[in-house]
């Protein structure tokens, strides 16, 4: 009886004691264009290492502001321009180019698909659309900044801005799905898989731009070894299918 009571007491104590052996979540700050890809690989990473991942996404401008404000992180996925703005905040030697993505056009799944095959037809589609959603350039979103400059180059900035729907974060496709905007312009990877919309294609090649995103380890990473393991997994051939499904490709493919 005494042994049984001791055993029961030890079992109870084990359930009440803090689980110090559980791995702390790896903190990832990701540009919106890469978030779905990282999320899709999180389960595989946890399966391999028994360590969860906490992913927080934002525009490049938002993430740069947070990092320069002293926010710690284990891994960050940013553009080269974004990395230039956070000197000393990451391990320089850890930098690896992971993905690249172009800008695409989305419409509601039940809407007609405008002709966007050429620069002129794309320009007509913009002028004929009742409303156009894109990331607010002031929020620091890469696609929004580029598209705003592109409107100037095409000579239709005033006409489009009269019917623009500026999105402070990355939810451009959601504005199209809800009917708030007829066209959505954003990184393809941020619109792929959003319910209620169809990505009808990329920008015409003469005006397309491709953005590369690199992964780095934070200078004050809580677990540098795990951070490096995550970067290696994201860069590995094992990630190829999920990379493609997310609307991304490797930088070396072009």
Mean pLDDT: 91
Q: Could you please say which CATH topology of the largest domain applies here?
A: D-Maltodextrin-Binding Protein, domain 2
- The separation of the N and C termini measures 73 Å
Question: Number of domains in the coordinates?
Answer: 2
Structural class: alpha/beta
Q: What is the overall shape?
A: elongated
Detailed description of the structure:
- This protein is of the alpha/beta class.
- The protein has two domains: 112 residues, D-Maltodextrin-Binding Protein, domain 2 (3-Layer(aba) Sandwich), CATH 3.40.190; 107 residues, 3-Layer(aba) Sandwich (D-Maltodextrin-Binding Protein, domain 2), CATH 3.40.190.
- Helices cover 41% and strands 22% of the residues.
- It contains eleven helices and nine strands.
- Strands 1, 2, 3, 4, 5, 6, 7, 8 and 9 form a nine-stranded mixed β-sheet that branches.
- α2 links the parallel β1 and β2.
- The longest helix has 18 residues.
- It is elongated and about 55 Å long.
């Amino acid at each position: 009886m005494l042994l049984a009571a001791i055993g029961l007491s030890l079992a109870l104590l084990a359930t009440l004691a803090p689980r110090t052996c559980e791995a702390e979540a790896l903190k990832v700050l990701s540009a919106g264009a890469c978030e779905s890809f990282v999320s899709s690989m999180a389960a595989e990473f946890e399966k391999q290492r028994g360590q969860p991942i906490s992913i927080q996404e934002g525009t490049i401008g938002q993430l740069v502001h947070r990092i320069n404000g002293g926010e710690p992180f284990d891994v960050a996925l940013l553009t080269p321009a974004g990395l230039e703005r956070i000197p000393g905040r990451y391990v320089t030697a850890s930098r690896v180019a992971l993905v690249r993505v172009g800008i695409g056009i989305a419409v509601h799944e039940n809407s007609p698909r405008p002709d966007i095959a050429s620069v002129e037809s794309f320009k007509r589609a913009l002028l004929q659309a009742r409303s156009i959603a894109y990331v607010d350039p002031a929020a620091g979103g890469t696609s929004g900044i580029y598209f705003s400059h592109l409107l100037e180059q095409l000579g239709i900035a005033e006409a489009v801005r009269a019917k623009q729907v500026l999105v402070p974060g990355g939810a451009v496709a959601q504005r199209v799905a809800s009917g708030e905007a007829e066209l959505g312009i954003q990184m393809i990877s941020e619109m792929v898989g959003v319910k209620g919309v169809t990505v009808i294609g990329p920008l015409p090649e003469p005006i397309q731009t491709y953005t590369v995103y690199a992964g780095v380890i934070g200078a004050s990473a809580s677990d540098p070894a795990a951070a490096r393991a995550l970067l290696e997994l994201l860069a590995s051939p094992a990630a190829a299918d999920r990379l493609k499904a997310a609307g991304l490709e490797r930088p070396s493919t072009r």
